[in-house]
Amino acid sequence: MSELDYWTLRLEFLGAAVEIIALFFTMVTIYITGLYFYLARASLRLRMMGFGVFTIGWAWTGMLGLNMRQISQEALYCATCMPERLNDAPLNGWVPDGAVAGVALGLVIYFALAAMTFSTGWRKETFPQSVR
């Protein structure tokens, strides 16, 4: 594998990571919008169902990210085993550091949305008149 092939592979994995992050933030944004406009006034059963669907999507996105992390580490490690000049490239820091920060941020967002979904203190006062 040439150096060009290695860097192409690395950029493809970076693009896949960015797409997974974009998918996660799209799901969170849609859930926040639905929570503000619809789920805040819904019954407990409907809020539980909405949060359950969000949990399934959140877990699916997380598993997709973890699988992509493992595949990218193995592929990039195998790519650097062959040519001697690529052994100095910093490989092992770019995926694990970002994954730990991403998981931590994802958990904070998840628990904040759970608290907003099932708490009742913020609902009545925060709606503008046009939404009621």
* Count of individual helical segments: 4
Counting structural domains, the number is 1
Structural class comes to: mainly alpha
Helix content: over 70%
Biggest β-sheet description: none
SSE string, helix = H, strand = E? Answer: HHHH
Strand content: under 5%
pLDDT < 50 stretches: none
What is the CA-CA span between the terminal residues?
62 Å
Average the pLDDT over all residues and give the rounded result: 77
Tell me the number of strands: 0
Oligomeric state: single chain
Radius of gyration: 20 Å
Shape: elongated
Verbal overview:
The chain has 132 residues and is mainly α. The chain has one domain (3-38, 46-119). The protein is built from four helices and no strands. The chain has helices at residues 3-37, 44-81, 94-118, 123-126. Helix 1 packs antiparallel against helix 2, helix 1 packs parallel to helix 3 and helix 2 runs antiparallel to helix 3 (94-118). The chain is elongated.
What order do the helices and strands come in, and which of them pair?
Elements: H1 3-37, H2 44-81, H3 94-118, H4 123-126
Quick recap of the structure?
Helices cover 77% and strands 0% of the residues. The chain is mostly helical and 132 residues long. The model has no long low-confidence stretch (mean pLDDT 77).
